[in-house]
């Protein structure tokens, strides 16, 4: 049976949050959907929670696999999805009650991607802030420009506040890059936009609650250095390759070069914060960055990033 939406939830050791996440899906006011739970080799009770929900609700499909990362887990969800539209959810986040309803209202025959407003909730401090989206549809090139903002109030490279037309994903055989552990979502977005030349629609309604937990993936970046974070740089390199293959403005290409330098800067800063420093690795990344951007621009962009972040911190 085909559905309007396939909701894909990659899961790894999410027992603390998983039930609340699934409940927020099953409570949707728009009920023409299937929910695909893909367990990425969890060692906690996540797999059992998945099976319990599958027994209670026929809309839930469960798949188990050996641990291999979020990208391959999402890809398994795509391979088994029957919905017209794909919607990706993280297992520690929540959907708003009218999420699917509000996204569905923006779908037309010419729309290939719909973007919704999201709420960022800081669980420990019990505070939240809400994103702002444009009030009109935009072209794929305009959205690619939005993605280059290295100082956004609200980052738009996430995939969980967006829904994608599955026919386009199948047509161009689009999948998440399984070599990338960080920034894999923005890379997928760019590949989708460049392949489909998608028209993007927006809803100003809040569709997603992004829960910031102390033990979340992004929260963990503030502590011990994770070697997988290096793949953020590789993702930026692959994005530039995608951009160069398109007949886009030179100004847009330059903006993506700045994103690459920002990735190099972030990795360097993360090493310093975690007191884990790999000189050889940094030199390799610098050479890869120099090859695409040039030494002078690396220096100028890094100084700009440092000063801008310092200014932002002073004005908080």
Write the layout of secondary structure elements.
Blueprint: E1 5-11, H1 18-26, E2 33-40, H2 46-56, E3 60-65, H3 70-79, E4 85-88, E5 94-95, H4 99-104, E6 113-122, E7 127-130, H5 140-146, E8 162-165, H6 166-171, H7 184-196, E9 200-212, H8 217-220, H9 231-244, H10 250-274, H11 279-293, H12 295-314
Helix pairs in contact: 5-7, 7-9, 9-10, 10-11, 10-12
Task: Describe the 3D structure.
The chain is an alpha/beta fold and 316 residues long. The chain folds into 2 domains: 5-218, Spore Coat Polysaccharide Biosynthesis Protein SpsA, Chain A, CATH 3.90.550.10; 221-314, no CATH class. 44% of the residues lie in helices and 18% in strands. The chain is built from 12 helices and 9 strands. It has helices spanning 18-26, 46-56, 70-79, 99-104, 140-146, 166-171, 184-196, 217-220, 231-244, 250-274, 279-293, 295-314; strands at residues 5-11, 33-40, 60-65, 85-88, 94-95, 113-122, 127-130, 162-165, 200-212. Strands 1, 2, 3, 4, 5, 6, 7, 8 and 9 form a 9-stranded mixed β-sheet that branches. α7 packs parallel to α9. The chain is globular. The chain starts with a strand and ends with a helix. The model has no long low-confidence stretch (mean pLDDT 90).
């Amino acid at each position: 049976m085909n559905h309007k939406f396939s909701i894909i939830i990659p899961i790894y050791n999410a027992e603390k949050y998983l039930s609340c996440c699934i409940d927020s899906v099953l409570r949707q006011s728009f009920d023409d959907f299937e929910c695909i739970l893909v367990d990425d080799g969890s060692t906690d009770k996540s797999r059992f929670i998945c099976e319990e929900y599958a027994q209670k609700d026929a809309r839930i499909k469960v798949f188990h696999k050996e641990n291999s990362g979020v990208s391959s887990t999402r890809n398994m969800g795509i391979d088994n999805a029957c919905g017209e539209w794909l919607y990706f959810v993280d297992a520690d986040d929540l959907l708003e009650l009218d999420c699917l309803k509000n996204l569905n209202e923006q779908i037309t025959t010419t729309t290939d991607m719909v973007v919704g407003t999201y709420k960022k909730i800081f669980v420990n401090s019990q505070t939240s802030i809400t994103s702002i989206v444009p009030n009109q549809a935009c072209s794929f090139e305009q959205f690619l420009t939005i993605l280059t903002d290295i100082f956004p109030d609200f980052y738009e490279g996430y995939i969980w506040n967006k829904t994608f037309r599955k026919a386009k994903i199948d047509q161009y055989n689009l999948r998440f890059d399984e070599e990338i552990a960080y920034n894999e979502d923005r890379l997928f977005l760019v590949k989708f936009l460049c392949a489909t030349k998608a028209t993007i629609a927006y809803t100003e309604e809040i569709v997603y609650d992004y829960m910031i937990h102390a033990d979340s993936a992004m929260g963990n970046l503030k502590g011990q250095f994770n070697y997988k974070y290096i793949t953020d740089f590789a993702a930026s390199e692959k994005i530039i390759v995608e951009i160069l293959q398109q007949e886009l403005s030179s100004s847009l290409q330059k903006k993506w070069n700045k994103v690459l330098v920002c990735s190099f800067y972030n990795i360097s800063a993360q090493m310093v914060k975690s007191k884990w420093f790999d000189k050889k690795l940094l030199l390799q990344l610098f050479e890869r960055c120099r090859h695409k951007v040039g030494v002078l621009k690396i220096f100028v962009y890094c100084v700009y990033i440092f000063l801008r972040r310092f200014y932002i911190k002073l004005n908080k």
